[in-house]
Write a structure and sequence with these properties.
The chain contains 15 helices and 23 strands. It is of the alpha/beta class. The chain folds into 3 domains: 90 residues, NAD(P)-binding Rossmann-like Domain (Rossmann fold, 3-Layer(aba) Sandwich), CATH 3.40.50; 209 residues, UDP-N-acetylmuramoyl-L-alanine:D-glutamate ligase, CATH 3.40.1190; 144 residues, Protein-Tyrosine Phosphatase, Chain A (Alpha-Beta Complex), CATH 3.90.190. Strand 4, helix 3 and strand 5 form a beta-alpha-beta unit. Helix 5 packs across helix 8, helix 5 packs across helix 9 and helix 6 packs across helix 7. The longest helix is centred in the middle third of the chain and has 16 residues. InterPro entries: Mpl (IPR005757), Mur-like_cat_sf (IPR036565), Mur_ligase_C (IPR004101), Mur_ligase_C_dom_sf (IPR036615), Mur_ligase_cen (IPR013221), Mur_ligase_N (IPR000713), MurCDEF_pg_biosynth (IPR050061). Its cofactor is Mg(2+). Keywords: ATP-binding, Cell cycle, Cell division, Cell shape, Cell wall biogenesis/degradation, Ligase, Magnesium, Nucleotide-binding, Peptidoglycan synthesis.
């Protein structure tokens, strides 16, 4: 079958394209932004890409099916031509559910935060146990180097997003996945562009719960009131909670050893394993509990899973060190929701301490929710543990903010500055940084290549 994917260069749709190609289909695709690294990854798979959505690309294409990404809306010229001609089309999540996930033991990881990291951990635990799982993850697990792969294994791990499916299907993507093992990491208000409030998102999570079979298992964060409300609305599967006493929990492995380096895993108050790793933060220990619990459902012993985490290499753009110059380290992190920003800063602070080590937070609030200004009031508190804050708001274009970033950061006082010029921000950070500082860059986009610009600026000051 020849499938043509609209919106192919997004992380999800690009991963879907790789899976379709691996399943033996002829795959082509188009997008408004066909550029590396996604374009080169796809072309290396033998996938032909077309720039833009011109309806003329239908001529001679002879596709059997059009798979539609949720970036495509009515008015898109190619989509309008597909509709006018009555050509067959389907959403990406529906195609995935029917053609890749059907018949497999699906392990789906849902939640506002930590989906990518927990999915990556879970995939690694299954792989290290010899189960060779397929996967589709909204990031690049460093243990695998790709965001998706198709195998002949019965198991498939998928990052389960609550964002809507397509312009013609406003259900959350994850209702198409039919998991036997469902991880519910946490639940907060997000995606203000499509959800009016938290209750609306809870309804979508309730719909996910309705798709888990009676023989399935739900692994849920026991600290989250919103998730408890979801379960109260109806649950027909076994439930295991993590993060609470008597469920899955972490405790210090031994006195005097930081829990960021070594911690014990308990289940039903029984010690079942010890984790030694290089990943920081309580949020990642919670992610680890969820992954260990989910892996146990498919037969991986907790002690073995805990041991496997020693070789977990995290995910690209999750506290990824981009370089170090003159004693200043630059990190790249995907954090863009105030809760994620706060936990990321707290994790780095726990690692480096307070004495003689400063954290310089460099933030670009560019998610749809952040651009709407719904959470701007939460930003100062989320950045309170940073020593200096440098915020960037694009002055124009689709990433421009609809609110004043400087005003939003004003409660932080003199330690915060806002910029609408990237070069000016880089200059200010370069001027402020001193040996020993940790520069933490947070954005869910490319941020104009600011990471390398900062490293270049730090290098230049040493030669000037």
């Amino acid at each position: 079958m020849h499938i043509h994917i609209l919106g192919i260069c997004g992380t999800f749709m690009g991963g879907l394209a790789v899976l379709a190609r691996g399943a033996g289909h002829t795959v082509t695709g188009c997008d408004a932004g066909v550029y590396p690294p996604m374009s080169t990854q796809l072309e290396a798979q033998g996938i032909r890409l077309i720039e833009g959505y011109d309806a003329e690309q239908l001529n001679g294409l002879n596709a059997d099916l059009f798979v539609i990404g949720n970036v495509v809306s009515r008015g898109n010229p190619l989509m309008e031509a597909i509709l006018d001609r009555g050509l067959p089309y389907v959403s990406g999540p529906q195609w995935l559910g029917e053609h890749v996930l059907h018949g497999k033991w699906v392990l789906a990881v849902a939640g506002t935060h930590g989906k990518t990291t927990t999915s990556s951990m879970l995939t690694w635990l299954l792989d290290d146990a010899g189960l060779n799982p397929g996967f589709l993850i909204g990031g690049v697990p460093l243990n695998f180097g790709v965001s998706a792969r198709l195998t002949d294994s019965s198991f498939f791990v998928i990052e389960a997003d609550e964002y809507d499916t397509a312009f013609f299907d406003k259900r959350s993507k994850f209702v198409h996945y039919r998991p036997k093992t469902a991880v519910l990491n946490n639940l907060e208000f997000d995606h203000a562009d499509i959800f009016p409030d938290l209750a609306a998102i809870e309804t979508q999570f309730h719909h996910l719960i309705r798709t888990v079979p009676g023989i399935g298992r739900i692994v849920t964060n026991g600290r989250e009131d919103a998730l408890e409300r979801v379960l109260t609305r109806g649950c027909w599967s076994e439930v295991e909670r993590f993060g609470v006493q008597g469920g899955w929990e972490t405790l210090p492995a031994e006195d005097g050893v930081p829990v960021d380096e070594r911690f014990a895993v308990y289940h039903n108050s029984e010690r079942v394993g010890v984790v030694e790793w290089q990943v920081q933060g309580e949020h990642n220990r919670m992610n680890a509990l969820a992954a260990i619990a989910a892996a146990r459902h498919v037969g991986v012993p907790p002690a073995q899973a805990a041991k496997s985490l020693a070789n977990f290499r995290n995910v690209k753009r999750r506290m990824e060190v981009r370089g170090s110059v003159d004693g200043v380290t630059v990190y790249d992190d995907f954090a863009h929701h105030p809760t994620a920003i706060e936990t990321t800063v707290a994790g780095l602070r726990a690692r480096v301490g307070h004495e003689n080590t400063r954290i310089l937070a460099v933030l670009e609030p560019r998610s749809n929710t952040m651009k709407l200004g719904v959470m701007k009031a939460q930003l100062p508190a989320s950045l309170a543990d940073a020593d200096l804050v440098f915020g960037y708001g694009a002055p124009a274009g689709r990433d421009a903010l609809g609110w004043n970033l400087g005003e939003a950061l004003a409660p932080l006082g003199g330690k915060a500055q806002a910029f609408d010029n990237l070069d000016a921000l880089v200059k200010a950070v370069g001027h402020a940084a001193r040996p020993g500082d940790q520069i933490l860059v947070m954005s869910n986009g490319g941020f104009g290549g600011v990471h390398q610009k900062l490293l270049d600026a730090l290098s230049a000051r040493g030669t000037s």
